[in-house]
Design goal:
The chain is of the alpha+beta class. It folds into four domains: 152 residues, Ubiquitin-like (UB roll) (Roll); 79 residues, Ubiquitin-like (UB roll) (Roll), CATH 3.10.20.310; 73 residues, Ubiquitin-like (UB roll) (Roll); 381 residues, Beta Barrel (Porin). The chain contains twelve helices and 29 strands. The strands form six sheets. It has a 16-stranded antiparallel beta sheet with strand order 10-11-12-13-14-15-16-18-19-20-21-25-26-27-28-29. A hairpin with a 6-residue loop joins β13 and β14. α2 runs antiparallel to α6.
């Protein structure tokens, strides 16, 4: 509170330089009097005029303000106002959605906007007036419809002239340098009060994660509007360095306490770390058996610099039945499904989890152009029903404390280009959580794959190494290493993520094929404090990955169609249809022998005739800028590249295919909802039939 009061005092000092105190009081009284004069007696008494006389606000815009990159767009200014405008699609529910004009509120919004401008470094900004433009006259059912235009005189901007941290450590120490380097705004940048408050929170979080639970950071802002400068000083009161003490667990008791304590990310006597408390809270929620989890440090009971911790838990219902549905689409594949899922999260009161997931749907394979055409026979691949049923059993801390055993039994009836398939599978797995950020998985799978009748005769295209044994049995042993240092699983801004896997098929395991598959996927996230001159929750995401399959074993040396490496789509290289970045063959009903090769385009075939088959070698990568300047709404700008090849000799000849694009984001409680538009930049003639643009709609970030 003291820091807020000091900031308020500093800003009041800056605002007082605009006009003398008496003049400002007269100005505020004048605004109130103007509201009464313009709005009439009802504006001052609080009584609303009759419904037919209510003025409806269609739109609010401004003149004289800056753009989106400057941070003073119409959208930003409207967010600082109390007076609102009608939402889009008002005709759907006109009575509920109408926003009336409140003239007294609009008059005071001028003062609110000037204060907002001062918080963003415009200490001389003025709202010179409002224009009310009637767009539609009143009638017997409703009042007139008006548009509000505000006139802004922004004036010069003030920048941060000096930035100091006092009390953090030695003035030239590493902590002070780190705080100065990550402070927003920095020296020479436009002053932004939100940035100062973010820097205050950043410093307190850093020190609370470094054994200082009682730290207090107080910002002090001195504004000099005439000099267009602001001096920012942070006073840091660290308090004592503390350690963790005893942990008290308060719960209903159906979940054994030692299972709860196994999720603690610290031990008694460790240096105090607030991030360990947050991580423990997430892990306890992740068990799926608690509806309320409070992990509270008892700072009021601190003795001898030792902080005790209390964990309060409320158990949820252990069994749930969930019904739902969904739709997914991108160019080349559309899916509609319904689902019914059952889950039990605490079998035998040992946190044994059982999930039975069932999904029934209908999938079509067609490009947007084919759907838009709509003529009979254009959409050559008809839709087909799909089924995905999976039973999963997870047993934590078995057979050892740091291990988790899982068993998955599934059956899938799926649709791919020109064929359908059915495959039952059983897959036991062993998970080892080696450290907080590192885990390893050992998995065995045995699956039976049956091609259902379709339009593709795979056995006539062996020159690309495509094997079409039907049906076949696949036995595979897999090892996977995951290193996850992301700050957030759903929407990361900092940290890294790495996934590295090896799968061995056949040999002593049996089955119809023998090959080894290597895969890697490395991601890096770098936070950005600002975009232009506006603070935003932004980050740059970097990604690089690839895969390699090596067949071996004589007669059984081959790779089944479903196990080949594929690229293209919403999760790797956007701008391409799903799985279409790489080799292809043609539907035999059109061409008996057609295969992609470097520098050669297929002749006499159309886009719908191409069937992507994947390859034995792939590489991909991407760079993405993510920003949420109007949280929860955001945008991304990305560039991806990748390719799938059949042989090493094709790597230099074909190279990587790049794409660029942009997209929108909505940050929901279940993760970001995204819509991306990708543009292919390659000009290779072997892909000349592929669409240049592709749209991708999905849940969660691309990576």
């Amino acid at each position: 509170m003291r820091g807020v009061l000091r900031l308020a005092g500093a800003l009041s000092q800056a605002i007082s330089l605009w006009e003398d105190a008496a003049g400002e009081n007269v100005r505020i009284l004048g605004i109130a009097a103007l509201a009464c004069a313009v709005g009439g007696l009802s504006a001052c008494s609080g009584r609303r005029p009759p419904r037919g006389n209510v003025e409806v606000v269609k739109h609010i815009s401004f003149q004289g303000n800056g753009g989106a990159l400057q941070g003073t767009s119409d959208f930003a200014l409207r967010g600082a106002m109390v007076q609102g405008q009608n939402r889009p699609m008002t005709f759907v529910a006109p009575r509920r959605r109408r926003v009336s004009l409140e003239r007294d509120v609009l008059a005071l919004d001028a003062w609110r906007l000037e204060t907002w401008y001062a918080h963003n470094g415009y200490f001389d900004a003025r709202i010179s007036g409002w224009d009310l433009i009637q767009r539609r006259p009143a009638n017997r059912w409703r009042g007139p419809v008006v548009e509000i235009v505000g006139h802004v005189v922004e004036g010069p901007t003030s920048v941060v002239r000096s930035l100091t941290w006092q009390g953090a450590a030695d003035q030239e120490g590493p902590l002070t340098r780190h705080l100065t380097r990550n402070t927003t705004p920095g020296v020479g940048e436009r002053f932004d009060l939100d940035g100062v408050l973010e820097s205050e929170a950043m410093a307190e979080e850093l020190l609370r994660n470094s054994s200082y639970p009682l730290v207090e950071v107080v910002p002090d802002v001195q504004a000099f509007p005439k000099e267009e400068a602001v001096e920012v000083r942070f006073e840091v009161e660290r308090g004592p360095s503390c350690t963790f003490g005893e942990v008290e667990v308060v719960s209903e008791g159906r979940v054994p306490e030692d299972y709860v304590r196994a999720e603690l990310r610290w031990e008694e006597g460790d240096p105090y770390d607030a991030s360990a408390l947050a991580t423990t809270r997430r892990r306890l929620f992740g068990l799926g058996v608690f509806s309320i989890v409070n992990v509270e440090p008892l700072l009021d009971e601190l003795e001898d610099n030792v902080v005790p911790v209390r964990i309060e838990l409320a158990e949820s219902r252990f069994q749930q039945l969930r019904l739902g549905g969904g739709v997914a689409f991108e160019s080349g594949k559309q899916d509609l499904h319904v689902s019914a899922d059952y889950q039990h999260v605490n079998i035998l009161n040992r946190l044994v989890r059982l999930n039975l997931d069932n999904e029934v749907g209908y999938t079509t394979l067609a490009t947007f152009e084919e759907i838009a055409d709509g003529t009979e026979g254009v959409v050559r691949v008809e839709g087909a029903p799909t089924l995905d049923s999976t039973l999963r059993v997870r047993w934590p801390r078995f057979p050892a404390h740091s291990l988790r055993t899982e068993l998955e039994v599934s059956f899938e009836l799926g649709v791919e280009e020109a064929y359908r398939y059915a495959t039952p599978e059983v897959a036991p797995a062993l998970h080892w959580q080696a450290t907080k950020t590192t885990s390893a998985i050992l998995r065995y799978s045995l699956s039976y794959f049956d091609y259902l009748p379709g339009q593709l005769e795979l056995d006539s295209n062996t020159r690309l190494g495509l094997d079409a044994t039907d049906p076949y049995l696949l036995s595979m042993l897999g090892q996977q290493l995951v290193i996850d240092r992301r700050d957030d699983v759903l929407s990361p801004r900092r940290g890294s993520y790495g996934l590295f896997g090896i799968d061995e098929a056949g040999s002593v395991l049996g089955g119809g094929y023998t090959f080894v598959r290597f895969t890697a996927d490395q991601r890096l996230y770098l936070p950005i404090a600002q975009i232009g001159s506006r603070v935003a929750h932004s980050a740059i995401g970097l990604r690089a990955g690839g895969g390699l399959i090596l067949p071996f074993g004589g007669d059984r040396a081959g790779v089944p169609f479903a196990e080949r490496l594929k690229l293209g789509g919403s999760t790797d290289v956007r701008g391409w249809r799903s799985g279409h970045l790489g080799p292809y063959i043609c539907d035999v009903s059109v061409a008996s022998a057609c295969a992609s090769s470097p520098g050669q385009a297929p002749e006499g075939v159309e886009l719908g005739d191409l069937v992507a088959i994947g390859g034995l070698l792939q590489a991909f990568g991407g760079v993405e800028l993510r920003a949420y300047p109007a949280d929860p709404l955001g945008f991304v700008i990305f560039t991806d590249a990748g390719m799938t090849w059949n042989e090493f000799s094709e790597v230099a000849e074909i190279g990587l295919a790049p794409s660029v694009g942009l997209g929108g984001r909505y940050k929901s409680q279940i993760g970001p909802i995204r819509l991306d538009l990708g543009l292919r930049l390659d000009r290779d003639p072997m892909f000349e039939l592929e669409q240049r643009f592709n749209l991708h709609f999905s849940l969660s970030e691309a990576f």
